[in-house]
């Protein structure tokens, strides 16, 4: 109960910068960004969480203060955020429940940790894919993956499909004029998604939330501008590139019809 007992304490550092570097309200281990709050929703109650690229460690500390998780590992590859995470954990008296490790990607996970959920947030989708791919040996296959890519969702979904992970939940949210996606997946054996599902997200194509539709309306305008720029370009644009954008325009137009 050590972590839960502290969960109503006043914020320790109310002027700390946001864990993932964005501008806006000053954030700390009690006041997460909207994006990290939505990630937190998908961490199962009582989970043993590995937060990879944890930065200041705000996500695992916030969840532990709320009594939402049983234990956590905060992994960081760089010294400055590693020290910042250590400081956040120690100042909240959670060093017996949250282990901060200096490690590359999933190498932060050790067999005795009993990890049941892995969060990787605030990186490009290709970077998250590479972390998962190079660290497969550290996964049991029983963990829930809660991923928040900053772009590059398509190659990340491709990796999930190729490695037998079913996408259980997806959401789009808009924060500080950027569209962010959250992808939640679990290992489920062979999974097949169409090219369009990999592009848009299979769950989101069905749910068609207002945030999702707004994102693709904006994307469609951008794609049309890109095609116009191609048409006016003084140097010839490779035909394959033009065709790729034209195909995406068709897909988005059909989606929004």
Write the layout of secondary structure elements.
Layout: H1 2-5, H2 34-41, E1 47-52, H3 58-65, E2 69-76, H4 79-91, E3 98-102, E4 117-123, H5 125-134, E5 144-149, H6 153-162, E6 165-175, E7 178-187, H7 195-200, H8 202-207, H9 210-232, H10 239-256
Parallel strand pairs: 1-2, 1-4, 2-3, 4-5
Antiparallel strand pairs: 5-7, 6-7
Helix pairs in contact: 5-6, 9-10
For the residues shown, what is the average pLDDT? 89
Write down the secondary-structure element order. HHEHEHEEHEHEEHHHH
C-alpha geometry: elongated
Percent helix, as a range, is 40-55%
Strand content: 15-25%
Strand order of the largest sheet: 3-2-1-4-5-7-6
Give the full name of the CATH homologous superfamily of the largest domain: Vaccinia Virus protein VP39
**CATH arch. level architecture of the largest domain:** 3-Layer(aba) Sandwich
How many helices in DSSP terms?
A: 10
Spans where pLDDT lies below 50 across 5 or more residues:
1-27
Question: Which CATH class of the largest domain applies here?
Answer: Alpha Beta
Rg of Cα set: 20 Å
Helical/strand content category: alpha/beta
The counted number of beta strands is 7
Largest sheet: 7 strands, mixed
- CA(first)-CA(last) distance: 53 Å
CATH topology call of the largest domain: Rossmann fold
Number of domains: 2
